[in-house]
Design a protein that fits this description.
The complex is a heterotrimer of chains A (273), B (259) and C (601). Chain A has 273 residues and is mainly alpha-helical. Chain A is built from eleven helices and no strands. In chain A, helix 2 packs across helix 5. Chain A is flat. Classes of the chains: A mainly alpha (273), B mainly alpha (259), C mainly alpha (601). Chains B and C meet through helix 2 and helix 9 of B and helix 11, helix 12, helix 13, helix 14 and helix 15 of C.
Chain lengths: 273, 259, 601
């Protein structure tokens, strides 16, 4: 027993020596706390956080990067800082913004006010933009969210951030990510609801809504059968219509929609003749 | 006469201790930090203990005098004396250590804080992980142009940097004496030679105020050069720094290929 | 992938969750169930990594979730390392026993595996506890990881059953499967046991390396469905190699401590001799595995740098830089105590006196190399020292703080540790070959050349060429060390061919002090593993899964090193208590009490 206690004391002493050295023998540096995460509470938000919120909307809910990305579907916003003023001064400018903040705000809600050469809708001679208004439709950003995106764009473009953080509005609680909520959404029952939810018409022309990043689907039923359409929705890159690029359409539709919704879409589209 | 083992051990340690002090403080002229010396002595003591006790005879000889002093009645006076002196010595040491002094507390800076993954430089978010020197490729593609860039960088350096970092890039410029921390010595193998060019770009453009929290205290007087120099000038200065010192910027790609 | 399998594994997980939660009434169940729903919601397609807020981390009975997970994970890892290592060297010892037909080896192997049986069930219990703690405190993280690793978790469970089955066969069949073909069958079982055990470790490693270097997912954390890509992520193999080697060294050191304790409490000389012999062998295994460990660690660190410079600088140059000073001190302590044990062990031979005079030189070089090894890059300077030096940079000591100096030091330490071993081997032998003198001169020349080469490489490549080569210089240094060790062993085996013994080896003739070196070895190993486990996990900083899933809990901050060291110390004390229990139980099973007059005659 004495032997046992000696050994135990020796071990405890050793551990104590290690701990003592770690605590006293070396300088204790207090590591920086984790960087602040964007808080949705606008009231207590500083500009950094507000810009970070804009960043998140830009890359997430706003679906901006679907087109404003390196594939060149839409103008590169990295240069927005230098370009914005030039566009305001351009003769082709049709809007009524006075400053860059106004220009950005207008671009988000009325994209056709100025269309960058080469990015207009086909046949419109760059007078009409294929971009949907981000304040309406399926994107439906609220005013504070739009302000955050503008702040983000100004920051990203190296401009002075002139946007003020709105304080008198309801807190725009971001929709919790689908996974986190765990609550399955109710299926949509009409094609139009689906088209709005997934912003199909941002790219495709279907009836009156006109997008030209993807093939015109107004009479798709005439040339393709239901099986083709089904596959085109689930695996868009399997067949690429002539004149369009691969990888433009999201390929995860199969994970976002219910089977019954797929059939609604296929039915609707195959009857467009 | 043979020196008793215990005395041998003590003499060795005293010799080592003053050996360090004499060699560093007087011969080499660069003081050995006392905190480090304490650690050195701890392990030197462990080493001496190991050498003197690994065989039975040595261990016996080492502890015999101590044992005798504690156990034998005839050493009573010495024993009492030792038992008095040791606590007093320890107490005096503790007293000395806890006594308030006018010495400023030891400050420890992290010399190479980890860079953030992105930094805002010249109004743009720059990804430091992928950033590369736009002029570096000329070193192999067009050596003449490269030499020109280096010369331009040298000019920028002489106009702006040498006051602190020195005309020999050794951190001993005319103003260096007045600064604490002293300006970095680029000739030293432990500074720019250990770093990638993007790291230098970040440190030069954002200066002392751009240091992350962990590099506190923020007492670096490095100016925020993005307010004074253009992007190209900074990159050219970086070319010059490496060219003049003969270091190569750290490059993980090549290092990987090495093994 | 096969949905049935997934469902089955979820079933297993869900049962565990519910069972454990039921046993833990009054806690916040909703979050854990939310995690379950997450799993269910994503079985069809894979969602992005969950974004959490501080409210998503349940607080249970006021316990600090991170501390609980930290300590339990660490305890699990220690036991797992021990349990995986023991079969490896039990296998080796069994082979030695079969070749030499020395029954002592077989008995020792059996004693080891007996100890590991109790440890095995403790490993499983701690694993379950870890799972429980993760689900309870980090439901979203666990939910996310389980969507990605559902397949491997399923196979993990299967392998676990296989491991148990083989282990029980191996242990309980030990005395049954003896002699001839049966022994071969038993040995095959041992091989199988190791294969399954290693498979288990590889799977578990992939989960944690995924958190450091995620693969198979996109920037938002959406899983591509390719399980192999997620498993075979960037840091998987570096961690595998490092852990495999370290486990062996660790298992050896724990068994060494066991033998040391048995030695100290042994009643008879026979027992003392046995446990001395056992301690020597365990220490030998630990040292053999310890020697390549610095290189495995270096490889891992280099790969972390290669994966992300940011992570690499956080690791070596940023806030964790001082942790490596603690590590250096501990590794130094390991080397010193291992050497001390070898020197003390020379007392077993009557011929060792011849080599005593060299020991002090080995000690001087070892200590010298060790001092270089732990000299920090950033020195703690008082203001007067700062003034005297003219700045924070020390012209002499500064260069000792960077990699080339460290590599040179560690290679020197390894070569001299090997030299200690060489002297130990020689201590009881007298060479009979005529060219002994020439052979010895060749040995001296070999060592001198090797050390000169290491010093040259370290100084030349470290200080006179650019950094690209600086990193590469470590490879020729390691090769030099390797060549010196192998050549020297071969040369020595020729010199001592047919050598005479000085006398019989006196097993058990070793001072008690030496046993404490073994205790120090075990404690230092345990503590060091805890510390390095902390940094391995800590360099993720405020990320659950680096750059993909952020840790938004209140405990996302990186603590100071002192705090981490205290947690590791507490965990180490708990672990040692449990280990003592395991050893005690193993002893109790062989103790019989015969009460007189208790049973009917």
């Amino acid at each position: 027993m004495r032997q046992f206690l000696t050994v135990i004391s020796f071990m405890l002493l050793t551990i104590g020596a290690f701990a003592g050295f770690s605590n006293l023998g070396i300088p204790q540096i207090e590591p920086a706390p984790p960087p602040v995460e964007e808080v949705i509470d606008l009231g207590s938000m500083n500009m950094e956080q507000f810009i970070a919120l804009g960043d998140r909307i830009f890359n997430g809910k706003g679906t901006c990067t679907l087109c404003h990305n390196s594939l060149g579907r839409a103008p590169d916003l990295g240069q927005i800082g230098t370009n914005a003023q030039a566009r305001l001064d351009d003769d082709r400018y049709a809007g009524d913004a006075a400053d860059i903040e106004g220009y950005l705000s207008e671009s988000l809600t009325n994209p056709s006010a100025y269309v960058v050469v080469g990015f207009g809708k086909a046949g419109s001679d760059d007078t009409e933009s294929p971009m949907p208004s981000t304040s309406g439709g399926s994107i439906a950003l609220s005013d504070p969210e739009l302000a955050a995106v503008i702040a983000y764009l100004q920051d990203k473009g190296g401009l002075e951030v002139t946007v003020e953080i709105p304080t008198d509005v309801e807190v725009p609680e971001e929709e919790p990510a689908e996974v986190a909520s765990g609550e399955p959404r109710a299926p949509f029952t009409t094609f139009q609801e689906l088209a709005d939810e997934f912003a199909c018409e941002a790219c495709h022309t279907i009836g009156e809504e006109a997008g030209d990043l993807g093939p015109n689907l107004s009479a798709i039923g005439a040339s393709r059968d239901a099986e083709y359409i089904r596959r085109a929705i689930l695996d868009p890159n399997a067949d690429i219509a002539e004149g369009f690029d691969e990888g433009m359409m999201p390929d995860d539709m199969g994970e976002q929609i219910y089977a019954i919704e797929l059939e609604i879409m296929v039915d609707f589209l195959s009857q467009l003749k | 006469m043979r020196i008793p083992k215990l005395l041998q051990a003590v003499l060795v340690l005293v010799f080592v201790y003053y050996g360090f002090i004499v060699v560093f403080d007087y011969i080499l002229g660069a003081v050995i930090p006392r905190s480090l010396l304490t650690m050195y002595m701890f392990f030197a003591t462990a080493g001496v203990f190991m050498v003197f006790t690994f065989d039975e005879q040595g261990a016996h000889e080492l502890v015999a005098p101590i044992k005798a002093m504690v156990e034998q009645p005839r050493f009573r006076f010495i024993r009492n004396l030792v038992f008095l002196i040791i606590p007093i010595a320890v107490g005096y040491n503790v007293y000395g250590r806890t006594l308030p002094s006018f010495e400023a507390p030891v400050e420890l800076r992290t010399i190479h804080p980890a860079p953030p993954s992105t930094a805002k430089i010249y109004g743009n978010r720059v990804n430091l992980l992928t950033l590369e020197n736009p002029f570096r490729h000329t070193q192999t593609d067009d050596p003449e142009l490269f030499a020109e860039y280096v010369a331009e960088g040298a000019e920028v350096y002489i106009m702006n940097c040498q006051y602190c970092h020195g005309d020999k890039l050794d951190g001993k410029g005319p103003f260096a004496e007045g600064l604490n921390p002293t300006p970095l010595n680029f000739q030293d193998i432990g500074t720019i030679a250990q770093l990638q060019e993007s790291y230098l770009f970040w440190r030069i453009t954002t200066g002392g105020p751009g240091l992350p929290q962990e590099a506190a205290p923020w007492i670096s007087s490095m100016p925020v050069w993005q307010d004074f120099l253009s992007v190209d000038e900074v990159w050219k200065v970086i070319l010059f720094l490496y060219d003049y010192t003969g270091h190569e910027p750290r490059s993980w790609g090549e290092a990987d290929a090495g093994h | 992938m096969n949905t049935n399998k997934k469902l089955l594994s979820y079933g297993i997980l869900a049962t565990l969750v519910v069972g454990l939660l039921a046993a833990f009434g009054g806690t916040d169940l909703s979050a854990a169930f939310a995690a379950g729903e997450e799993v269910a919601a994503t079985t069809g397609g894979y969602g992005p990594a969950p974004v959490t807020t501080a409210a998503d981390y349940p607080s249970v009975a006021g316990a600090n979730g991170r501390l609980v997970v930290w300590i339990v994970a660490q305890l699990h890892l220690w036991f797992a390392a021990f349990v995986l290592a023991v079969p490896i060297f039990v296998f080796i010892i069994e082979v030695i026993g079969m070749r030499t037909r020395d029954k002592r080896y077989d008995d020792m192997a059996y004693e080891f595996i007996k100890v590991s049986i109790t440890a095995y069930s403790l490993t499983a219990i701690l694993g379950g506890l870890l799972l429980f703690a993760l689900i309870l405190f980090y439901p979203h993280l666990f939910g996310y990881l389980s969507t990605i690793f559902s397949d491997s978790m399923f196979y993990y469970a299967l392998l676990f059953f296989a491991e148990s089955a083989v282990l029980y066969l191996y242990y309980y069949g030990w005395h049954w499967l003896q002699g001839g073909v049966r022994k071969w069958i038993h040995l095959t079982l041992g091989l199988l046991l190791n294969a399954v055990g290693t498979g288990l470790m590889l799977l578990a490693n992939s989960w944690l390396t995924f958190m450091m270097s995620p693969a198979g997912v996109d920037a938002a954390g959406v899983f591509s469905g390719d399980s192999w890509a997620a498993i075979h992520n960037f840091l998987w193999n570096p961690i595998n190699i490092h852990r495999f080697v370290a486990n062996i060294a660790y298992g050896g050191s724990i068994v060494g401590a066991y033998a040391a304790f048995k030695f100290l409490t042994a009643g008879t000389d026979r027992e003392k001799a046995h446990y001395d012999w056992m301690g020597y062998n365990a220490n030998f295994i630990a040292i053999c595995a310890l020697l390549p460990l610095p290189f495995a660690g270096y490889y891992l660190a280099a790969e972390i740098y290669a994966y992300s410079q940011q992570m690499g600088i956080t690791l070596m140059g940023g806030i964790f830089a001082w942790l490596f000073i603690i590590q250096a001190v501990l590794i130094g302590a390991l080397f010193l105590s291992a050497n001390y044990y070898l020197w003390c062990g020379m007392g077993r031979s009557d011929g060792a006196k011849r080599y005593h005079k060299y020991i002090k030189y080995i000690a001087i070089v070892l200590i010298g190399a060790f001092l270089v090894w732990f000299t920090p890059h950033t020195l703690v300077l008082t203001n007067s020292e700062l003034k005297a030096l003219g700045g924070p940079h020390h012209s002499i000591l500064g260069p000792l703080g960077i990699m080339p100096a460290k590599n040179t030091a560690v290679n020197t330490m390894i070569i001299f540790t090997f030299l200690s071993f060489l002297f130990y081997r020689r201590s009881n032998k007298v060479a009979v070959v005529r060219w002994e003198r020439a052979g010895n001169i060749a040995q001296v020349a070999l060592f001198a050349a090797g050390i000169a080469n290491i010093l040259f490489l370290g100084i030349y490549h470290g200080y006179f060429t650019n950094t690209v080569y600086k990193v590469a210089a470590s490879i020729p240094q390691v090769m030099t060390t390797f060549v010196v060790i192998v050549t020297s062993l071969v040369l020595d085996s020729f010199i001592y061919r047919g050598a005479k013994d000085v006398g019989p080896l006196h097993w058990g003739r070793i001072p008690d002090r030496a046993q404490y070196a073994l205790f120090l070895l075990a404690v230092a190993f345990t503590w060091l593993m805890g510390l390095m486990g902390y940094i391995r996990s800590g360099i993720r900083q405020h990320w659950h899964v680096v750059d993909i899933m952020r840790d938004n809990s209140a405990d996302a901050f990186t603590p100071t090193l002192g705090y981490a060291a205290n947690v590791v110390s507490i965990a180490a004390i708990i672990f040692l208590t449990m280990v003592i229990f395991v050893f005690w139980i193993a002893q109790v099973s062989s103790t019989k009490t015969l009460p007189s007059g208790y049973w009917k005659e």
